[in-house]
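Students often ask why inverse folding is considered easier than folding. One informal answer: many sequences map to the same fold, so there is more than one right answer. In these notes we will look at a single instance of the problem. The structure comes first.
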C-alpha cells in the first residue's frame, strides 16, 4: 500500500453532505442561515445577515455532517443548536453562540 507521507497536520477533513440525508449543502445552509438569522437576534446574533451566513456556510470550513450531529465541526451540529432555540427561545443566550461560527460545542 501507499505510505503515510504528507497530510495536513492532523486537521479533520471537510466532508460533504451524504446523499441519504436528502439535502445538499446549499439546502442545509439555507435552513441553517434562515433559522439562525430569525432566532438568534440582538445580543445573540451570530451573523449580520442571511447573506453573510450563507456565504460563510458554503466555505470549506465546516463539514456538512449528519442530521443528528450534536458535536463535530459541521453545519448540522450548528443547525441542531438553532433547533434548540426554536424549541425554547429562553435557550438563545446559550444555544446561539453554540450555533455560530465560533461554536465551542461543534468542534
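Output (designed amino acids):
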Amino acid at each position: 500500500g501507499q505510505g503515510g507521507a504528507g497530510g495536513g497536520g492532523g486537521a479533520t477533513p471537510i466532508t460533504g453532505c451524504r446523499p441519504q440525508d436528502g439535502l445538499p449543502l446549499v439546502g442545509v445552509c439555507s435552513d441553517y442561515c434562515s433559522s439562525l438569522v430569525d432566532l438568534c437576534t440582538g445580543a445573540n446574533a451570530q451573523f449580520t445577515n442571511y447573506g453573510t451566513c450563507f456565504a460563510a456556510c458554503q466555505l470549506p470550513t465546516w463539514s456538512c455532517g449528519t442530521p443528528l450531529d450534536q458535536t463535530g465541526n459541521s453545519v448540522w451540529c450548528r443547525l441542531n443548536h438553532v433547533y434548540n432555540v426554536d424549541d425554547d427561545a429562553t435557550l438563545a443566550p446559550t444555544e446561539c453562540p453554540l450555533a455560530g461560527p465560533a461554536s465551542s460545542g461543534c468542534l
